[in-house]
Amino acid sequence: MAEAVAKEKVVKAPKEALFSKKNRKLITDPLTDNNPITIQVLGICSALAITAQLQASIVMAFSVLFVLGVGNVVISLMRNIIPSKIRIIVQLIVVATLVIIVDLVLKTFAYELSKTLSVFVGLIITNCIIMGRFEAFALANTPWKSFLDGIGNAAGYGIILIIVGFFRELLGSGTLLGVQVLGDPIEKTGLYAFGYENNGFMLLSPMALIVVGLIIWVQRSRNVALIEEH
Amino acid sequence: MAKNTDSNLYTVLFAIGMVIVVGSLLAFMASYFNPAISLNKKLEKQQNILFAMGVNESTLTDDPDDANSFVPTDKVTSEFGKYITEQLVIEGDKVSKDSLAYLIDLKKEKELAKNPNYTRRLPLFIGEKDGQKFFIVPMRGSGLWDAIWGFMALNTDLETVKGVFFDHKGETPGLGSNIKEAFFMDDFVGENIFSDGQFKGINVAKGNADPKNEDKNDNEVDAIAGATITGNGIASMIKKDVAMYLPYFNTLK
Q1: Where would a tag sit more exposed on chain A, N or C end, judged by fewer CB atoms within 10 A?
Q2: Are A134 and A94 in contact (CB under 8 A)?
Q3: Residues in CB range of B154: below 8 A, 6 or more apart
């Protein structure tokens, strides 16, 4: 987890100096006030499916970061030659091709990692954030801006995924990244010695939705401007 | 832009061009990477078989922390030759030695066996470690989403489990995917697949009757919460696939 955060910072820090304020907003906005999951309510399906474990959430976050960053650039480069009638199909082909290439390369050079990722391949293609960003941003903007937008949105998605994964694994299995942090539930050590029990319900998908709901609640109570008027 | 990207002709040509470019790119990459990928798969099978009989990275490093990792890929072929003393192929009553038995594709055999005239080829691996003999049976079944498979190492009594390895193609992360975690696989060690002389297999039980798994003769291990169907898949895979070897095992007893 700490490693993941550090990596993200290393990637971003040198670029930020080159950014104009407007470009910076492309990355920071989706992290908070325009988060793809909590504000735009996109990508919920994969957020429910794979957040039972923190590790899976992190792997998914980075997979989407790569596919959305590169995909946005490819679509943006092609934006003037894509016929508008078949643009959705073209976008789909770009995502699918990228994902298959990544999968093949991983299978060759990092076989173990590719096995961990195999479940996510299908989920990445169906992630509506990816198609959403292609359609809404990359088709109308330059490659550099599209790249920033892709990274920003994928990071905003990844942060929520990691938060949800953290709580679901901690409360559902009593572990974090597979390490027993609350004691041993069978030997009754740590917290379990005081009668604490894992909440098996946290492992099931509906709880992901409830955790996302709680995050939305916290976010909106801190930033009243996000609350829609009816 | 001089081109009219809305015209039908352009759209059709673009679609055709895209299909040709993407299709040939993917076909090229797939055939280019294929030899390396199939080598990886071969090594993985060797790693899996060794893991089931308790040969893992810690066998080489003597560090018990490595007990959950495979033998590294660069050493696995020599280790496989060292620990696996015999590879047999059982075809009905006929038993033959075949040093490539581990490459038999269980999925294909299962398909072919649907033809009643076909005698299914059953690979069996005999390993030896520290003077102990292991009989390793490969298995293949289905979980919740896709295929699951594994290897079961049996003691010389051909009843007691010495070790297992499970893997899966696409079980739910955090739930069904836990079948390949040590805490689940370790539960099988010492279990008996027979009960009162009858083949029972090993049930993946939800009852939580024996969470520490102290009763080794109950033909049961503790299930994983939230992974009922994957667990049932494991139980039926063991029951079906190990049973196919019983006629041969009876000739050895």
Answers
A1: C
A2: yes
A3: B134, B135, B136, B137, B160, B161, B162, B193
Whether the per-residue pLDDT at A1 is higher than 50: the answer is no
Task: For chain A, give the mean pLDDT.
Answer: 81
Please, what is the end-to-end C-alpha distance for chain B in angstroms? 82
Cα–Cα distance, A204 to A128 (Å, whole number): 22
3-state secondary structure of A195: coil
Instruction: State chain B's maximal CA–CA distance in angstroms.
Output: 84
Q: How far is the C-alpha of B103 from the C-alpha of B96, rounded, in Å?
A: 15
| Domain ranges (residues) in chain B | 80-252
B interface toward A at CB cutoff 8 Å? 1, 3, 5-6, 10-11, 14-15, 18, 22, 25-26, 29-30, 33, 36-37, 40, 44, 73, 167, 169-175, 177, 181, 211-212, 225-226
Residue-range domain boundaries for chain A:
42-220
Would you report the helix, strand and coil content of chain A in percent, each value rounded to 5? 75, 0, 25
In the DSSP assignment, the letter for residue B150 is E
The model's pLDDT over B190-243, given as tens digits with 9 standing for 90+, comes to 888 888 888 888 888 887 666 677 777 778 888 887 788 999 999 999 999 999
Q: Taking CA atoms, what residue in B is nearest to A94?
A: B22
Give the integer Cα–Cα distance in Å for A93 and A88: 9
Distance from B84 to chain A by nearest Cα, in Å?
23
CB atoms within 10 A of CB A115: 17
Which residue has 């496989």 as its token pair?
A: B80
Nearest to A150 by CA among A55, A224, A52, A76: A76
Residue A195: Cβ within 10 Å count? 7
Q: What is the pLDDT of residues A127-144, one digit of tens each?
A: 888 888 888 888 888 888
Q: Which residues of A14-32 are buried (b: 16+ CB within 10 A; e: fewer)?
A: eeeeebeeebbbbbbbbbe
Q: CB-based contacts of B53: which residues, under 8 Å, 6+ apart? A: B83, B127, B129, B134, B136, B153, B162, B163
CA atoms of A187 and B214, how far apart (whole Å): 13
pTM score = 0.72
Say how far apart CA A158 and CA A65 lie, in whole Å. Answer: 8
Indicate the pLDDT class of residue B1, thresholds 50, 70 and 90: very low
d(CA B125, CA B45): 12
Nearest to A197 by CA among A208, A185, A179: A185
